[in-house]
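Checked the freezer inventory, then went back to the computational side. Two predictions to log before the end of the day. The first one is the construct we discussed on Monday; recording sequence and C-alpha cells without edits.
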Amino acid sequence: MLSNLPWDLILEILGFSVGVLYLWWEYHANSKLWFASIVMPTISMWIYLRKGIYADFAINIYYFLIAIYGYIVWTRARHRGDDGSTKKKELPITHIPGRNLFYCTALFFILWVTFYCVLRFVTDSSVPIADSFTTALSIVAMWMLARKYLEQWLAWVAVDAVCVGLYAYKGIFLYAVLYAVYTVIAFIGYRNWKRKMLEGS
C-alpha cells in the first residue's frame, strides 16, 4: 500500500514546507534555522539522487554538517564584559572581512571548476555548469551564513536565481517555486540583516 504512494511528490511538499520555515528563521536571524537545516538535507538528498542532480546530492552532506557547526557558532559565541568576565552572547551580524572575502571568492572558483569537471566527465549529468555553480557557491554561502556575515544574502541571490531555472528544467516544480521565493526574500533579507546590524542586534 505504501509503495503506491507518490513519494517524490510527498517529499517535495515536505521539503518545500521545511524550506519556508527555514527561510522565515533565516530572515529574522533566528538560530532555529539550523534545525531546519538538518531536516532539509535528509529530504533533499533522496530527491536529488532520483533526479540525477548529483552535486546537489553530495552538497547536502556538507549542509548537514555545517548546520551543526552554524548552530554552535551562533549560540556559543563569547563576549568579554567590562569587568573582564566572559559571557555567552549570540553571534552578531557583521560584514565579511576583506581577507575572508578573497578566500571565499578563490574557493568558489576552485570548487566550481572542480565540480564541473567531475560532473562533465565522470557522471551523466545533463546540467554540469549550473549544478556545479550552485553547489560551489552554496558551500561558500553556507559558511558565510554560519559566521553570520551580511553578504551571505548576496551569494544566495545568485544561487537561488540559478536554481529556479535548474529545478524547473529538471521538473522539480515545487522546488523551483521555493527558490523563486528565496530569490526575492534574499534581497529583502539583506536589507533586514543590514538594519539589524546597524542597530547592533
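The second is the one RB wanted added to the comparison set:
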Amino acid sequence: MAKRSIHSPDINKLPLVEEFFSVQGEGFHSGKAAYFIRLGGCDVGCSWCDSRFAWDPELHSMVDTDIIIEHAVNSGTDSVVVTGGEPLMWNLDGLCKGLKKNKIRTFIETSGAYPLSGKWDWICLSPKKNMPPAGNIIIEADELKVIIEEKSDLEWAEKFRRIVSERCVLFLQPEWSRFDEIIPEIVKYVQKNPEWRISLQVHKYMHIP
C-alpha cells in the first residue's frame, strides 16, 4: 500500500480493477451516461464499503495507462468517472492528460485522503472519518457527498460544509445497508437545512453496475 504522505509517481501504469460503460448512480450527475474506471488500492477501510474487492492493489494487474485511455475512447463516451478503492493513491496526471486529449471530460470520486493529481472537470469529495481529506482538495471540490450511517454523521457533514467553496454542491447519502433506519433522519435534516440535497444510489435500484 502507498503511504499517506505520497502517491505513486508512475503515470504509465495503473492497477485496473474494472472498467465499464454505465450510468452514474449517485450525486450531482446521477442518471448521466459515463465510462467508469475503477482502480485498486485503498487503506481508508470503511466498514460499509461495497467495493472491498478493490482494496488490495496487488490483486489487480498493472495496466498501461494508454490502454485504459484507448478503451474509454472506443466506448464512445464523452465522460469518464475514476473511482476505487481510493484512486488518488496513484498519480493520475497521465490518465487525465490522455482523456482530455481525446476531448473526454474527467470526473473523480475520492475520499481526498491522498494528494490530488490529474486535471478534473468535476471532483466529488466524499470524506471519511478514518482518513480525513489532505491538502487543498476541500477547496477545489465541486461536490461534497457525505455518507450518513448514523445521526452523528450529520455533524461530520457540517464540519466540511463550513469549509468547502460556495460553489460546491452539498449531498447527504444514506449508507445502503442502513437506508430504512437513517433516511427519515436525513429527510428531516434536509427540510431544516435546505442547502443540502439527498443523494440516492439509484444504480442499485436499476440493478446496473
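For RB: Helices lie at 65-75, 93-101, 137-140, 153-161, 179-192, 202-206. The first helix runs from residue 65 to 75. Let me know if you want it refolded.
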